């Protein structure tokens, strides 16, 4: 279980996050929602070690992660799929997947069959360059690469952005399958309200870097949540 407590983050002199707290449990999707610029991506970057947080604590299964680097966060089991995907355009699909081996010991440098079971198109395109894939195929590749570690926490930043409807639905089914297997805690940042609401088990609504709502789905009123994430 990932626990974020009172996280504060600055970019230079500008404060972006103000004491943000959340819990992400295995077998659940925690949706972080809000309008553009409220700090959603900054929160994921802090958790994944991409940007140092100023104050607060991160713990994974009760073990503190004190200002981890991206490599340390990945070694601890936190996988990050960033907005924009960060696929290497001149490398093949297979080589892009193999880039996920960076934090694994050499005896673990194999691509599990499960990756291709989740994303069959990648098996057929292993030799194709990453830059030649469609946006939806690149998104599948980015998620597949993140799953190679294998992660205990999966951070997804806008996974439906700029992709075609059929891939949109497939990614939703993959998230559902990973959730239902019960081994990974998933933190989802998503602008498309219905997609996030249908998938999530708990919600964290942000506005101007602060938490407006933090609740389980069973106690969340849909219209109240929609109003808060539209501020």
Show the helix and strand layout.
Elements: E1 2-11, E2 14-24, E3 29-33, H1 40-47, E4 55-60, E5 63-64, H2 70-76, E6 78-81, H3 93-98, H4 113-118, H5 120-124, H6 135-146, E7 153-157, H7 165-181, E8 185-189, H8 193-199, E9 202-207, E10 210-216, H9 222-228
Parallel strand pairs: 3-8, 3-9, 6-7, 7-8
Antiparallel strand pairs: 1-2, 1-4, 4-5, 9-10
Keywords:
globular; alpha/beta; about 230 residues; about 25% strand; about 30% helix; 10 strands; 6-stranded mixed beta sheet
Unreliable segments of 5+ consecutive residues: none
What's the order of the H and E elements?
EEEHEEHEHHHHEHEHEEH
Oligomer: single chain
Q: How much helix, percentage-wise, in residues?
A: 25-40%
Shape: globular
Q: How many beta strands in the DSSP annotation?
A: 10
Number of helices: 9
The mean pLDDT is 93
Structural class, by secondary structure, is alpha/beta
Q: What gyration radius follows from the Cα positions, in whole Å? A: 17 Å
End-to-end separation in angstroms reads: 30 Å
Could you give the order of strands across the largest sheet? 6-7-8-3-9-10
- Measured by DSSP, the beta-strand proportion falls in 25-35%
What's the main sheet like?
6 strands, mixed
